[in-house]
């Protein structure tokens, strides 16, 4: 599938939103935060658009997408290249929109931020959202996108981090991620991949 993967463009935005809501239809906790409402969709659009427009640089979000044989976006990965300094979600993400809950949003992302900040003190690649449309599971799209992220991290000798859903744990394990020893017992999908110089 690698020949169908590349950086996202602004023309991909409608497909990106469709893929996100399809991918996380089984994750009610997340969809209670980024709601399937005009406000939730606007929040998502404002989160994706800077990632599409940004130049590759530290502390900047980027988006890889995978397309099917018809050219439609069916999978995506949003990631950050971070320099090891804590960057709270309230600084890197859009303002909460109408129809979204401040309390629920804060509860979810403050918790994931706390785990991330506790673990990753060095520069690393942070996988924020890996999404595949439900009609395109188990076709290799997500794996191809993660391998692109791995290649990028290896070029910089950076580790990788993700706070994944348990249902996606196997995908990450297949490309070299492991449950992090500090949180893995209670949160088995809090995972990392060591930087290239530390892997045997």
Automatic annotation (TrEMBL):
Q: SUPFAM superfamilies per the record?
A: Acyl-CoA N-acyltransferases (Nat)
Annotated N-acetyltransferase domain residues: 3-197
**Top-level taxon of origin:** Eukaryota
Cross-referenced CDD domains: NAT_SF
Q: GO molecular function: any one?
A: acyltransferase activity, transferring groups other than amino-acyl groups
Q: Which Pfam families match?
A: Acetyltransf_1
Name of the featured protein: Acyl-CoA N-acyltransferase
């Amino acid at each position: 599938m690698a020949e169908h993967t590349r950086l996202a463009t602004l023309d991909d935005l409608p497909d990106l939103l469709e893929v996100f809501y399809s991918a996380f239809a089984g994750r009610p906790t997340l969809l209670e935060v980024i709601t399937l409402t005009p406000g939730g969709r606007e929040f998502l659009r404002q989160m994706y658009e800077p990632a599409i427009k940004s130049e590759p640089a530290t502390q900047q979000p980027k988006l890889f997408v995978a397309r099917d044989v018809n050219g439609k976006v069916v999978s995506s990965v949003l990631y950050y290249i971070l320099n090891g300094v804590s960057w709270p979600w309230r600084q890197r993400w859009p303002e909460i929109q109408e129809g979204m809950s401040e309390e629920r949003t804060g509860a979810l992302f403050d918790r994931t931020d706390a785990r991330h900040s506790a673990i990753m003190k060095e520069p690393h690649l942070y996988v924020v959202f890996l999404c595949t449309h439900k009609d395109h599971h188990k076709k290799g799209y997500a794996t191809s996108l993660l391998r692109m992220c791995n290649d990028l991290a290896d070029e910089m000798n950076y580790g990788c981090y993700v706070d994944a859903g348990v249902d996606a744990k196997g995908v990450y394990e297949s490309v070299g991620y492991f449950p992090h020893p500090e949180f893995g017992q209670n949160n088995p999908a809090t995972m990392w991949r060591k930087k290239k110089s530390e892997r045997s």
